[in-house]
Amino acid sequence: METQLSREMLEALVETQARIDKLEFMPMLELLLNQIIKILKIERCSIFRVSPDLEEVNLVAGEPKGKHGIGMKFKFDELDQIREVIETKSRSLILNVALDPRTKETKALIDSEGIAAMLLIPLLARGEVIGVIVADATGERKGFSEEEMYFCLTLSNLASLLLERDLMQKEKAEKETLMILGQAAAEAAHRLRNPLQIIGGYARRMQKIEDSQFKDYSERIVDEVSRLERTVNDLLNFSRPKRTKLEKINVSEVIAEVKESILQLVGGKNIRIDLKLDSELPVILGDPYDIKDVFSSILKNAVEAIQSEGKILIKSKCGNGWIRVSITNTGGCINEEILQEIFNPFFSTKTDATGMGLATAMNIVRVYNGEIKVENDKSLNLTTFILKLPTNLTVERG
């Protein structure tokens, strides 16, 4: 039998849809929380932000605010009831929570607040749980009706659809921009290459002239020409990612190799690079140098983001036809304005960089029919690069 919502619930959904479209992520969570409290007429509700790559959840919103430890972090294995929702990606109703083994770690809170039941609703984006809403039944209330559960689930689905739409629009705009920039980069590189070769050739001849001042000038010209030639090569790599050599690739093995080479960049910093790699990843077909270039660019960026000490966690797993690799660093969140530009060519916050590393990585991944994105987690002060490659990997020939 289909669940029918009351007029009050339907009006709340319409109101939410009208308001939620104009909100950023955190205000959106607050709106969801307040609507659930108002419509279900409950006293306690909280929202946890999920960080799957660190297997942590962070309490980011809750009512009543004075009785919630907003900002507290928990490992998945500390909150079995939330871990279950994350793993199953479905809602959960726990009755008689005081005796349920899933809530054993929160028994003190259950007893002090008189919680009789919990309703847990996942908030999803791209098929991944990014948040969990927890509504508590206290006082005379002993549980939640089918109508109430359906309302909460509909509310979370509405938020998920809006998040999906925003992600799709953003990725479409980025793809179109990169295509135009790639064409411009190729044209610029070809126009610059020949003049640079001529200038460099004459400057190298001038170096042979026995005149100290003249030789010094020519050496400076050669150095600058070499720098420009590297930029031209970066432009060509961006506009035409390498894809001529196809071999069987074990992604986890490539990551381990790149980790060893990137350790040279750590220098005097106290940085720990931890690997949590799936040994059962399927072998994919591609150019190993492409894949190494992608991971090298991302790891180099992670090392540079950490000022003096920190941690980089690299995780790989497989599911739903994708190999997913996440690279999380504790160097803090990326400024939102920089985040919008980070994959664009020529963009760099460093004076000695061409700004082509991450742009080329993005282009390579797209040639391999994959996805790459970067996420800020302001609640945990983390940055995570997420790379996805299809397990039935085929390469688009250009």
In short:
It contains 10 helices and 13 strands.
Describe the structure.
The protein has ten helices and 13 strands. The chain is of the alpha+beta class. The chain folds into two domains: 7-168, Beta-Lactamase; 243-398, Heat Shock Protein 90 (2-Layer Sandwich), CATH 3.30.565. It has a six-stranded antiparallel sheet with strand order 3-2-1-6-5-4, with helices on both faces. Helix 2 (25-40) runs antiparallel to helix 5. The radius of gyration is 26 Å and the shape is elongated.
Order of strands in the sheet with the most strands? 3-2-1-6-5-4
Amino-to-carboxy terminus distance = 53 Å
Over the alpha carbons, how many angstroms does the gyration radius reach?
A: 26 Å
In the CATH classification, which architecture of the largest domain applies?
A: 2-Layer Sandwich
**Total number of distinct structural domains:** 2
- Main β-sheet: number of strands, strand sense, barrel status? 6 strands, antiparallel
SSE topology string: HHEEEHEHEEHHEHEEHEEHHEE
The CATH homologous superfamily of the largest domain is named GAF domain
Query: What structural class do the secondary elements suggest?
Result: alpha+beta
Query: How much strand?
Result: 15-25%
Helix content: 40-55%
Which stretches of 5+ consecutive residues score pLDDT under 50? 394-398
How is the secondary structure organized here?
Blueprint: H1 7-20, H2 25-40, E1 44-51, E2 56-63, E3 73-75, H3 80-88, E4 92-95, H4 107-113, E5 115-125, E6 128-138, H5 146-206, H6 212-239, E7 247-249, H7 251-262, E8 270-276, E9 284-286, H8 288-305, E10 309-319, E11 322-329, H9 336-339, H10 357-367, E12 371-377, E13 382-390
Parallel strand pairs: 8-10
Antiparallel strand pairs: 1-2, 1-6, 2-3, 4-5, 5-6, 7-9, 10-11, 11-13, 12-13
Helix pairs in contact: 1-2, 1-5, 2-5, 5-6, 6-10, 7-8, 8-10
